[in-house]
C-alpha cells in the first residue's frame, strides 16, 4: 500500500493505492482506468482536457468496472484486449477543507485500475475526447504524463511486473 498527498486543482487529496483483486464499494467507484500494453509498450492517450494520460473515465449506471475499462479503452485508444484488475486508488477527501457534501464526488471514493494486454489495434479516429494514441517505453512516462506521482508509479510498477 502506497499513500501520497496530491494537489487536485485547489485541493489536497490523500491517495492510497491498494494492490488487490477485490473491488471496493462499487457505489463509490468514480472512475476506471486501463494500463494498456501492446507487446512491451505502454499506450498513452492525448486527451483534450488532460493532456497525455492513461485511458479511463467515469463508470456509467449499471456498468461493471471491467466493462467500463473496456469501453473507455476502446473509446479513447481504439484497442481491445484481455484485462484483469490490478487494484484501486482510494481517493480520500477527509482532510480536504474544500470538500463538502455538495461535491460530485464522495468523501472517500475509488478509482479502479486494470492491466490490458492489447490484442487488436483498431484504426485511430479521434472521435471522442482523445486526440492521439502513442505507444511508449514505460520508463518514458514522465515525459508524457504531467501529474505523475508515487501512487501512479506503483500502479505502473505493478502493471509491468504482472504480465498475466
Describe the structure in brief:
Helices cover 15% and strands 45% of the residues. The protein has 164 residues and is of the alpha+beta class.
Alpha-carbon distance between the two ends: 21 Å
Mean pLDDT: 92
What summary fits the major beta sheet? Answer: 9 strands, mixed
Number of domains: 1
Helices and strands: which structural class? alpha+beta
**What CATH first level would be assigned?**
Alpha Beta
Question: In what range is the share of β-strand residues?
Answer: 35-45%
Shape: globular
Structural key phrases:
alpha+beta, 164 residues, 9-stranded mixed beta sheet, Nucleoside Triphosphate Pyrophosphohydrolase, single chain
Structure, described:
This protein has 164 residues and is α+β, with helices and mostly antiparallel strands. The protein has one domain (2-161): Alpha-Beta Complex (Nucleoside Triphosphate Pyrophosphohydrolase). It has 2 helices and 9 strands, in the order ββββββαβββα. The longest helix is centred in the middle third of the chain and has 13 residues, at 65-77. The mean pLDDT is 92.
What's the structural blueprint in terms of helices and strands?
Blueprint lengths: L1 E7 L2 E8 L10 E10 L2 E7 L3 E3 L2 E3 L6 H13 L1 E14 L15 E14 L8 E7 L13 H12 L3
Parallel strand pairs: 3-8
Antiparallel strand pairs: 1-2, 2-7, 3-4, 3-6, 4-5, 4-9, 7-8
